[in-house]
Amino acid sequence: MTSLREPHDDTEFEEARHVAAHAIAHLHMGQTFRSVGAHSAGWWEVIEPIWGTNQRTNARVAMAGPCLDLAVALVEEDGDVALVGSWLETWRDDVASSPQGYRHDLVDAAGSITGAAAWALAFCRANLELIDELSWTLTKMHAPVEYAFISARFAGRSAGVDPATLNLAERDLVGHSRALDRIDEAVADYLDAERAETGLHQSVRAPLAAGLLDRS
């Protein structure tokens, strides 16, 4: 049985917000997961997500957390889009050197970050109140919070991305296409290194260069 408690601090709410964005995006896309809970390293995570076969859809869900954090930062900085570049640099650096940063999300979006980022940013803006509602719910409950509990209260309530909201997100990211491409390239390098370590040498660069990975 799940019981209620008070959130420890603002940091806990911010971390719950990140994972709530993922959870709401999973629900929006009709994807399931086992639960939402605290990782052993201290951060929140969606536990055992069931990914679909459409990489573009998966990438949009994977980018919901990073783009929620970016959306909040833009609000706090009064819409100063100059900070977007530094955020994208942080994402790229995390892929290479920070397993406790955004690496996991960006690897899940492999090959489709460029196309997914604007949609995810728009989605988080359109659903910020719903994401905050789930965040508050998560911080009041002992983890893990099961999918059935979250789905019963939040499924079917998320808003779609309308053209105006998407256009605003695209304007925020305009001029950063090369930075987004570099994140995809960093993910490709990371996955190549992982395959080499496990004795699998099939590169992800070939399908990426050939346009076989969905980047729309």
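That was protein one. Protein two is written in the same sequence-then-structure order:
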Amino acid sequence: MSDTLVLAVTALLAFGVPGWGVWGIWHIARHSPTRQRALTHVLGVIAGTVLLGMVLPAVLMGALDPFWIWLGYAVLAVGAAAVLAWRWPALKSGKGSHPSLVITSCILLLVLAMAGIAVT
């Protein structure tokens, strides 16, 4: 059961993170989202990349070195952050509360805490 769960989570991440990342880069570069929404896209890509870095070695089980696969995802996350930094001055600051940014930030903190526990 747990192997099936790990494979399902990895498959969702393997297809979802690049899709979210490419869509986020395109959305930030071609449209004018608020700064908070653009930051939400980038934080989501980073959280997915970190989470994939934790489950990918378990799925590959020593058959392949997961570093090179994960590196592609990390490059995509860095690209999303670079596009955000490039477009930041042109993006408007949104007014009011932004629950998506808060939720994504909390998810990223949770994923980083899980990664820290997994490493130790």
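The chain has a mean pLDDT of 89. Keep this in mind for the problem set.
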